[in-house]
Amino acid sequence: MLKRASSLALSISLITGGAAQAEDNSWYASGQFGVRAVEREEIRAPSVDIDFELHNGLYASGAIGKIFDAGGVNFRLEAEAAWREGGDIRDFNINGVDGAAIGDGISAVSFMANGIIDIKNRSRFTPYFGGGIGVAKLSADISDGANMVMDKATSLSAQGIVGVDIGLSENFSVFTDLRYFKSFNATMTLQGTSGTADVDVDYDAYTFGVGLKYKF
C-alpha cells in the first residue's frame, strides 16, 4: 500500500510539474496612446433621427493581464480601461435635413475584459489578435440650437483587436494595434422645443495606438 501511495504521489508530482513548465503564467502591465476615429453616429427616437460624424480625437488605455503558454501561441487574459475623446461635430443632419451643431460630441470611458492570442515565431515581431467585452460610460454634448443631448449613459460594449508586438528585452516590448470598438444602445435624454424624449445612442470608433508593455 505504501509503495502504491508513493508511486501515485510521484506520478502526480511529475504531471503537475510538467504542467507548470508548460504554462508561462507571466503577468504584464501595458499602456497605450493614439488617435480615435469614429464611424457615422446615430441618435434615434420615434420622431427624431440625428446623423453626424466627429473629427478625430485622442485615445489612451491601460491594461494588466496574464499570459498562458499554449505551445505555438500565447493566450492572454487582460483587464483594460480606456478613454476615447469626443470631437467637433461635422456632417450633421436631423430627420434627413442638413444642419449645424456644436458641442464636444461623444466621449467614452470603457472597462473591458480582453482575450488575445499571440502568434509566436523566431523573430522579435509577434502578431496578435483578439477581442473583448465590457461596459462603457458615454458622455454626449450635442446641440443644434433647437435640440440638444447633454447626458451620460452606461452600456454594453465590445471590441476587436489586431496588432503586432515588438520585443525589446526579456521584460519590455512595444506594440501597435488597430481596435474597433462598439457600444450598444445607450439610452439618453433629448431636450427639444417640444419637450424631452428618450433616445438610443449608438457609438462606434476605430483607434490606432502605440504602447509599451512590461512583463513581471
From TrEMBL:
InterPro entries: Beta-barrel_OMP, OMP/PagP_B-barrel. Residues 1-22 form the signal peptide. The keyword Signal applies. This is Outer membrane beta-barrel protein. Residues 8-216 form the Outer membrane protein beta-barrel domain. It comes from Hyphococcus flavus. Gene3D superfamilies: 2.40.160.20. Keywords: Signal. It comes from the Bacteria. Pfam families: OMP_b-brl (PF13505).
